[in-house]
Amino acid sequence: MGSYPGKPGHGCVRMSFKCDKCGLCCRMIRGTPLEKWARKDGSCRHLTKDNLCDIYAKRPTICNVRRLWEVQFSKTVTWERWLRLQEESCKIIKEKGRSG
Ligand code: SF4
Ligand code: SF4
Asked: At residue 3, does pLDDT exceed 60?
């Protein structure tokens, strides 16, 4: 498993995914592995009214950009590319959210 390149002391420039906490991705969990937690409106039962996750410290790997990369994608995708992919999917989610 590759190590997280942004780890303090690793020597690489720290890069991270910028999430503005709009909560949209946690409102569209139908059809995902988290579906069992979906409320009637498709939002995750762990999403609070403030758009926070009430199990944040123990959130599933699929909800954790860094851990998902570490356990599943670090051998095939660089951290930089992974961040770009996250930003792209975030943009798509926001466009989808705006259109309905
Ligand atoms: S849609 Fe993007 S910005 Fe909004 S909460 Fe999800 S990851 Fe963060
Ligand atoms: S577990 Fe937390 S981060 Fe994951 S979808 Fe639910 S509210 Fe969002």
From this structure: no
Kindly report the CA angle at 3 between 73 and 26, in degrees rounded to 5?
Answer: 50
Q: Are 24 and 93 in contact (CB under 8 A)?
A: yes
pLDDT surpasses 50 at 54: yes
| CB 50 less than 6 A from any atom of ligand 1 | no
Number of Cβ within a 10 Å radius of residue 1:
9
DSSP state of 6: T
For ligand 1, whether the C-beta of 47 sits within 6 Å is no
Kindly tell me the burial class for residue 8, based on how many C-beta atoms sit within 10 Å of its own C-beta (0-12, 13-18, 19 or more).
exposed
Largest CA distance in the chain: 46
pLDDT of residue 2: 42
What separation in Å is there between the alpha carbon of 24 and the centre of ligand 2?
10
Question: How large is the average pLDDT for residues 56-66?
Answer: 95
